[in-house]
Design a protein that fits this description.
The chain has 370 residues and is an all-alpha fold. It has a domain of 230 residues. The protein is 70% helix and 3% strand. A two-stranded antiparallel ribbon has the order 1-2.
Length: 370
């Protein structure tokens, strides 16, 4: 006799559903709560490791990031703004590509190549032309070098459908080795290029970082307008949503991909220029210092909004500098700053899940449907 038993379908205990677009202030409240919870956890971890209370830990972090500004010592404060500006510049650079769904993971290499172009111009052309003209040449060649390094993966993606993530990552290693070889030759095996005095960006009001900060602020506003209100920005958004739709309405997708990566690489070149000609006046393989990869996270968490990205860049730099000061003060491992930054980033990434999705718990009688 056939088994006529009907097995009842049971709903899972937890059900994840995609939310409708959340009201902006609720999303901001969730993100703010995530940051506060992360800082609370960071305080607990720091207190356990150092024996200091919350007040003492965050006092040290504030001094490490901003210095003793109330005593007139502002050098650390300006360094904070400089580091924020560089991270923001790299984040701005990858944003047009990301909005187009072109995963440019090569900001590190593109900035290095831009910085290398600046260094070559400073060393080879310094003293052979007026200083103002030398600076113009440096700017042009830095942007051009970064643009070329960025457009190579774009050409292969547009014409041969290669994987842009792997391609741009590999270009980072190539750029690093080119810089290492140049430093080895120029430094005559020492691995160090002494700071160059020609071709440096001008100092405004006696503050060596001010020009860098102003340039990045201008780029932030320009990119916001470009992405939100220009025809090119509209085409980037459409290609990012659907390449088939873009082709249907007459957008030349290959052209948009190549043009956008030219822009992305050129902006990375600007970051390299600011680091070499505006800050270090030299170059090595660690000039960018991994910030090209951090910029990916900043751009994504900022939802491609330059102004939000500026706030996130400042938060990342504060955590890195402040936690570094705590580690130095209490002889902790150098990875402490990375741990602190990672905790906050983890909370920020996690909160995005709860903004986009809701978690529902099954209700109902035992053995019945929810």
């Amino acid at each position: 006799m056939a088994d006529t038993t009907v097995k009842k379908h049971r709903e899972p205990l937890l059900h994840i559903a995609k939310r409708d677009d959340m009201v902006w202030w609720k999303a901001c409240l969730i993100r703010l709560s995530a940051i506060l919870l992360a800082l609370l956890l960071v305080g607990i971890i720091s207190s356990l490791l150092t024996g200091e209370g919350f007040g003492g830990v965050y006092s040290i972090m504030l001094r490490g990031a901003f210095g003793r500004i109330f005593q007139g010592k502002t050098s650390l404060l300006w360094r904070f703004f400089q580091q924020t500006a560089i991270l923001l510049c790299l984040s701005l650079a990858v944003t047009p590509a990301f909005k187009m769904r072109f995963w440019n993971c090569g900001a590190e290499g593109q900035a290095l190549i831009g910085g290398l172009a600046a260094m070559v111009c400073m060393m080879k052309l310094g003293g052979k032309m007026p200083e103002w003209l030398l600076i113009v040449v440096i700017v042009v060649f830095s942007c051009l070098a970064g643009a070329v390094w960025g457009v190579i993966p774009a050409l292969f993606k547009a014409h041969y459908k290669t994987n842009e993530t792997l391609f741009t990552l590999m270009m980072n290693y190539v750029a690093t080795q080119i810089v290492a070889y140049y430093v080895y030759l120029t430094g005559k095996g020492s691995g160090i290029i002494q700071p160059v005095s020609t071709g440096n960006l001008p100092v405004i009001a006696g503050l060596p970082y001010l020009l860098n900060i102003l340039i990045v602020c201008v780029l932030m506003v320009v990119l916001f307008v470009y992405l939100k209100y220009s025809k090119h920005g509209y085409e980037i958004a459409v290609v990012g949503e659907s390449q088939n739709t873009a082709r249907y309405i007459g957008i030349r997708v290959k052209k948009v991909i190549i043009r956008t990566m030219l822009l992305s690489g050129a902006l990375c070149g600007v970051a390299g220029l600011l680091l070499v000609a505006g800050t270090d006046h030299s170059i090595n393989t660690n000039t960018v210092g991994g910030q090209g990869f951090t910029a990916i996270m900043v751009s994504w968490l900022g939802h491609f909004n330059p102004f939000v990205m500026a706030l996130i860049s400042g938060l990342v730099v504060f955590l890195r500098s402040g936690a570094g000061k705590v580690a130095d003060s209490f002889f902790l491992n150098g990875s402490f700053a990375d741990i602190v930054s990672g905790v906050v980033i983890l909370f920020l990434v996690g909160c995005e899940f709860f903004i986009r999705y809701s978690v529902k718990i099954r209700r109902g009688k035992k053995g019945g449907n929810a």
